C-alpha cells in the first residue's frame, strides 16, 4: 500500500485510492523508491530513509522543465556516502535513520535513456519542532496494498481472538495486506509524542526518538479518525510524514516512517488492525496498530551537518532575515559567512541563492495562514520562479544596502 488508507474509504477498494498528490500537496515528489521500500529526497543529492531498509537504485518522479514532461529518474548510490544518525549517550549508539547520496551522472529515465542530472526538486523544509498531540499529519509511502478478505470478499477482514478469519462479530477488524506495492498518501492524528521507541530487540536495541499515530476505525470518534486514516505496512519504511507549521502555514517534513506496533500474536506483515474504542490504556488489545515515526526535529542538527541548507548561515534550520543580515554584514567580501553559493564573494548571486531556499521564521510569532500552502515539491516554472527570486532579492538588496550604510557610518551596535 503506500500506507493502508481507511477513513471514509474503509469499505471500498484502494486500488487507485490516493495514488497521486492531494490538492494541498505536502511534498509528493520528494518521496521516492529504493530497494523495495521508500526514501525521501532532501536536496543536494542527499536522500533519507530508514537504516533497516536495504537500499538500491533510487527513483523520484518530478517535472523536468527542459523536457517539459513528468519523468521518473533512477539514480545509483554514491559509494561510501552513507551516514547513520546517532542517539545521545545512554541510548543505542545508532538510530534507525540513514542518509546517502545519489549520483546524477548515473541517472536514467524512461526505458533507460540517460538523464545525467539531479532531481529537479527543491529541498523540503524539515521541521524544527515535532507535531503536537492530535495534530493531523500526512504520510506518503510505497508499501503493500490492502486486499479483500479471503473468506468473505469484503474489503475489511474480521478475525477472532486467535487471529482466524471469521464472518461473525469479531475481536479484531482491519485489512489483509497483499504483495503489490503502490505509492499512496493518507492522513492521521498524532496519538503519542516524545517517545523513545526501541525498534530493535532487547539484546540489540535501536532507539528512535519518535511520535506515533494510531489506526482507528472509521466513525469511531471524530477526534480520533480522519477521512484518509493511514497505517504503515511492509515497504513504507523510510516514507515521509508531513505536517503544517501553524506559524508559517507551510508543509514541513516532520518525520520518517520507521516501524509499526502489533497486537499480541498478530500475523506480521500480512494484517493491519484497527483499535477497538473505547481505548483502554491498560488493555493492549484495544490499541490496534500504530505507526512509529522518527521525529526529524530531534535529528535535524545531524542532518544539517551532513547536508546544510544554502543560506542558513547560523544553522538554525531556517533561511530568514537573520541570514540576510549575515550577507549584508559581509557584503562584497570573500566571506565565508554570507557566501551561500561558495564562489568566493558575497554579492547579489548569494541573495538569489538563498531566495530559492527562503523559509522565513519557522518558530517565532506571526506569519502563516495555517492553510497548508505546499512547500513546493517541484522546481517552479521559470517565469514564476524568477519573479519569486526577484521579489526576495529586491527586498534583500534594500536591506543589505541600508545595513552596509549603517556599518560604514558606525551606527551599528552589537
What is the CATH C-level name of the largest domain? Answer: Mainly Beta
* Mean pLDDT figure: 85
Question: What are the secondary-structure elements, in order, as H or E?
Answer: EEEEEEEEEEEEEEEEEEEEHHHH
Number of strands: 20
Strand content is 25-35%
What is CATH's topology name of the largest domain?
Thrombin, subunit H
> Looking across the biggest beta sheet, what order are the strands in?
2-3-4-8-6-5
Q: How many separate domains?
A: 2
The first-to-last residue Cα distance is 55 Å
How many helices? The count is 4
Please mark out the parts with pLDDT under 50 across 5 or more consecutive residues, or reply none. Answer: 364-389, 410-414
**Shape descriptor:** globular
Biggest sheet overview:
6 strands, antiparallel, barrel
Helix content: 10-25%
Query: In terms of structural class, how would the helical and strand content be classed?
Result: alpha+beta
CATH architecture field of the largest domain: Beta Barrel
- Radius of gyration, whole Å: 23 Å
Comma- or semicolon-separated keywords:
4 helices; 2 domains; alpha+beta; six-stranded antiparallel β-barrel; 414 residues
In short:
By secondary structure, this protein is of the alpha+beta class. The chain is built from four helices and 20 strands. The protein folds into two domains: 4-298, Beta Barrel (Thrombin, subunit H); 310-356 and 380-408, no CATH class.
Amino acid at each position: 500500500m503506500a500506507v493502508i488508507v481507511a477513513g471514509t474509504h474503509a469499505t471500498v477498494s484502494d486500488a487507485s485510492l490516493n495514488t497521486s498528490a492531494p490538492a494541498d500537496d505536502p511534498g509528493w515528489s520528494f518521496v521516492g523508491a529504493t530497494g523495495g521500500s521508500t526514501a525521501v529526497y532532501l536536496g543536494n543529492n542527499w536522500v533519507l530513509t530508514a537504516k533497516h531498509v536495504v537500499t538500491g537504485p533510487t527513483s523520484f518522479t518530478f517535472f523536468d522543465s527542459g523536457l517539459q514532461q513528468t519523468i521518473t529518474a533512477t539514480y545509483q548510490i554514491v559509494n561510501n556516502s552513507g551516514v547513520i544518525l546517532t542517539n545521545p549517550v545512554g541510548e543505542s549508539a545508532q538510530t534507525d535513520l540513514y542518509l546517502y547520496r545519489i549520483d546524477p551522472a548515473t541517472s536514467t529515465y524512461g526505458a533507460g535513456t540517460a538523464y545525467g542530472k539531479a532531481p529537479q526538486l527543491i529541498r523540503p523544509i524539515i521541521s524544527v519542532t515535532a507535531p503536537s498531540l492530535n495534530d493531523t499529519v500526512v504520510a506518503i509511502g510505497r508499501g503493500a496494498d490492502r486486499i479483500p478478505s479471503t473468506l468473505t470478499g469484503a474489503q475489511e477482514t474480521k478475525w477472532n481472538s486467535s487471529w482466524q478469519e471469521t464472518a461473525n462479530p469479531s475481536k479484531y477488524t482491519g485489512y489483509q495486506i497483499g504483495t503489490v506495492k503502490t505509492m499512496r498518501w493518507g492522513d492521521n492524528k498524532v496519538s503519542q509524542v516524545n517517545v523513545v521507541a526501541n525498534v530493535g530487540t532487547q539484546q540489540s536495541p535501536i532507539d528512535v526518538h519518535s511520535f506515533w499515530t494510531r489506526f482507528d476505525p472509521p466513525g469511531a470518534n471524530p477526534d480520533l479518525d480522519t477521512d484518509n486514516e493511514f497505517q504503515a505496512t511492509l515497504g513504507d519504511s523510510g516514507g515521509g510524514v508531513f505536517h503544517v507549521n501553524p506559524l508559517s502555514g507551510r508543509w514541513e517534513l516532520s518525520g520518517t516512517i520507521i516501524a509499526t506496533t502489533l497486537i499480541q500474536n498478530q500475523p506480521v506483515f500480512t494484517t493491519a488492525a484497527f483499535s477497538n474504542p473505547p481505548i483502554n490504556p491498560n488493555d493492549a488489545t484495544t490499541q490496534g496498530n500504530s505507526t512509529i515515526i522518527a521525529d526529524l526535529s530531534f535529528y535535524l542538527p545531524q542532518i544539517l551537518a551532513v547536508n546544510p541548507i544554502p543560506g542558513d548561515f547560523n544553522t538554525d534550520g531556517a533561511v530568514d532575515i537573520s541570514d540576510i543580515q549575515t550577507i549584508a554584514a559581509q557584503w562584497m567580501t570573500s566571506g565565508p559567512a554570507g557566501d551561500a553559493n561558495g564562489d568566493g564573494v558575497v554579492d547579489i548571486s548569494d541573495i538569489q541563492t538563498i531566495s530559492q531556499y527562503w523559509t522565513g521564521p519557522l518558530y517565532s510569532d506571526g506569519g502563516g495562514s495555517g492553510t497548508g500552502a505546499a512547500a513546493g515539491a517541484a522546481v517552479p516554472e521559470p517565469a514564476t520562479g524568477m519573479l519569486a527570486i526577484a521579489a526576495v532579492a529586491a527586498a534583500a538588496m534594500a536591506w543589505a544596502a541600508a545595513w552596509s550604510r549603517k556599518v560604514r557610518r558606525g551606527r551599528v551596535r552589537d
